[in-house]
Design goal:
single chain; mainly alpha; Growth Hormone, Chain: A; 2 domains; MFS_sugar_transport-like; Major facilitator superfamily (MFS) profile domain-containing protein; transmembrane transporter activity; MFS_Trehalose_Transporter
Length: about 350
Amino acid sequence: MNLQNKTAPAVVCRAAQNAKRELRELITRLRAEDETVQLESVCGSQKNIGGSQKNIGGSQKNIGGSQKNIGGSQKNIGGSQKNIGLGGSQKILSSIKNTLSASRPCNAYCQQEYLKPLMIVATFMLLQIICGTYLVIFYAVSLIARADEEREVTGNEAINPFLIAVLTAVVRFVFVCIASTLLFWVGRRPLAIVSGVATSIAALALGTFLYHNGASEEPSPHASWIIAGLLLCYVAANTLGFFVLPGVAVGELLPVKIRGAAGGYVFAVFNLALFGMTKVFPSFADSLGGHGVFWFFGLSTLLCTVFVYLFVPESKGRTLQEVEDYFKEKNIMWISRNREKSSVESNRI
């Protein structure tokens, strides 16, 4: 019993020492494992850093390629600027000058391609007035009454001026419809020339008949019907061309850039001239007489026909751009135009 009691504490001490030793070894092993894990994580981070550096290196290579591309683009831009040079600068300056000149209406109207059509259209419309196109409409009753007074006829032999006025309006309406249809098939120049020649013949014939019938001792018994017939022929021939074509010329001959403003100016001048001519016509008719008025209309129509033949271009079958190109040529009269170029354009159409 005593021996057992002595050895028991020693065994307990050894067991405690062994437990402490094992605990120290376990702690040491755990620390070593922690350090290993930390080292592995550090190595992995270094690998990631290395991969990131590789990526950065690739990005730098891409940046270098982009810089090369930028350098090539700059070289191309420099070459383009060299190619532009003085020629490109001159083109830019010329376009600026054209823009500034187009923004100034006075400068535009002084240019050849704008001045020529403007003068042609304005002259055509002013000649239309002195041809009697509108004056016969306004003073048809007065002209017929004046013719009866000069012939010194009354009663049943006299012409009913109001009936003639109605007949002239009907004839004008019918021939306006005919002229509007013919514009699809016939050129403007042939229609105007035929109308001018026929109007001139009718006006001169009417003036001559009035003169000889008034001076004759034995007037013709059918004078009233002859006068009415010649007057209606004059109205029909005049309406067929000279009544409708000046308005058509405004839309077909004036260039697009000035058509709105120039058309307004032309019609304003036309209406002012028509107003003035309407006011002075009674005094003019008193001084010339009935026959003199129609002689004046006939000669004025001949003058207008010659003007159309020489200056007014043919616009049927041509585009607006082709008409504008014609006015850029150096010629003034239509008969002196470049016929080869016109024939090529007609064949192409």
